[in-house]
Write a structure and sequence with these properties.
Order of helices and strands: EHEHHEHEEHEEEEEHEHEEEHEHEEEH
Helix content: 25-40%
Strand content: 25-35%
Structural class: alpha/beta
Largest sheet: 9 strands, mixed
Distance between the termini: 10 Å
Number of strands: 18
Radius of gyration: 21 Å
């Protein structure tokens, strides 16, 4: 069959590989000039186990993310060797609970224990290990913590280097004989043509693509707009945020032996930091600075910053992160221009308010994955980065069951 995948992020690329491996011809339409260029690399690469979602009263988010996380590596190793994958895995995360956390310490402690139990039970049931780590895997309190007034836990949760994953997936796409990629192809809408589908591009002078047996919309920021313009509006409410982090290059040169462990501050509008030894870079995110715009509307406008503004935002991010990783405070004193860059993109989830609201829908992130809009037309809400591989393979399997 002829399959078109809209969007070449991690979800779209893995969906294309899944269809192509089953013998189908796949066309990827990507509005940028390269694969995996936006949200798939503009994040910390955390392979979430749900520790940060203690505010979900039903525990559904952790349950969903644990399964996504266990399947993350086995799915990717269909196209990435075990040695290549192991080379992009980072150290475990320390979770710091600040004195002003949005959840009481006892609630967080109970939530962590519940995540541990669920993780080990699901690994046994599935016969798989989270990122290949031997078990059992548990979080445990750390007696010494550099953050004043905070409690810390060492967890088994890890990140992967997202740029490394993207490079390996890009290689798999480029080498696959049944995948064609068309760049600078912004999609306006999908149109049904008999029992087939046609894709109209946004440029008036651009020729559309088709016919296709199957359409998979895996565009990230514009996914819902494409579905709506195609006659399939999604139920709301939706909350769109633009968030960035700061990537420090040559981190060991600037921090020497003071590179902090990988840390997440929970629960609330705090931040995290992740060190990637593969290219000696440090990702830092401080929510009050990096979450620079939000809206419940469908409009998507990327913020722009002057050079001076970017330098200021980098320093403010490190100053904020110093509250849980004091060594990062020294980065704010570096001379300009700073050896770093802002890395960000949209975060889209169901809800009406931000995470500082205990009742926000953003604290519950289990309702994601592929959705059948019509026979042959599917739309994938990725959710978190960790959920991309499982969502892609689920879409391929469920879609082909129709034919």
């Amino acid at each position: 069959m002829q399959v078109v995948v809209i969007g070449a992020g991690l979800t779209g690329c893995l969906t294309a590989l899944g269809f192509a491996d089953r013998g189908h011809q796949v066309t990827i339409l990507e509005r940028a000039g390269r694969l995996l260029s936006r949200a798939s690399t503009a994040n910390e690469g955390k392979v979430h186990l749900g520790y940060v979602f203690g505010a979900d009263p039903h525990f559904h988010t952790a349950e969903r993310l644990i399964d996504d996380a266990i399947l993350f590596r086995p799915i990717l190793e269909r196209w990435i060797s075990a040695a290549e994958f192991a080379a992009v895995v980072c150290d475990p995360f320390v979770y710091v609970v600040p004195a002003n956390s949005g959840l009481p310490l006892d609630v967080i402690r109970c939530h962590f224990a519940r995540v541990d139990a669920r993780l080990n039970a699901r690994m046994d049931e599935l016969g798989l290990r989270y990122l290949g780590q031997p078990g059992p895997l548990d979080s445990r309190p750390l007696p010494d913590c550099d953050s004043a007034g905070a409690t810390a836990f060492l967890t088994p949760e890890r990140a992967v280097w997202p740029q490394g994953i993207s490079a390996l997936v890009t290689r798999a796409i480029e080498l696959h004989p049944r995948i064609e990629v068309r760049f600078m192809a912004e999609v306006a809408r999908v149109v049904e043509a008999g029992e087939m589908w046609h894709v109209d591009l946004a440029r008036p002078d651009a020729k559309g693509d088709g016919p296709f047996d199957i359409v998979v919309n895996s565009a990230w920021a514009d996914r819902r707009n494409i579905d709506r313009r195609s006659g399939y509006p999604s139920a709301g409410p939706w909350f769109t945020r633009y968030k960035f982090g700061v990537v420090l290059h040559h981190a060991s040169h600037h921090l020497a032996d003071a590179i902090p462990p990988n840390i997440t501050a929970t629960s609330g509008p705090f931040g995290d930091c992740v060190y990637y030894p593969m290219n000696d870079s440090l990702y830092s995110s401080w929510y009050p600075v990096g979450m620079c715009s939000s809206t419940t509307a469908d409009t998507l406008e990327r913020p722009s910053f002057s050079h001076a503004q970017m330098q200021s935002l980098m320093r403010k991010t490190w100053q904020g992160c110093a509250s849980f990783a004091p060594a990062l405070g020294r980065l704010a004193a570096l001379d300009s221009p700073l050896p770093a860059e802002l890395l960000g993109d949209f975060i889209i989830a169901k809800g009406r308010s931000d995470i500082d609201d205990p009742a926000s829908g953003l604290h519950q992130r289990s309702d994601h994955g592929p959705v059948r809009l019509a026979c042959g037309y599917w739309s994938i809400e990725t959710g978190k980065y960790v959920s991309a591989p499982r969502g892609a393979m689920q879409c391929v399997s469920e879609c082909l069951e129709e034919f």
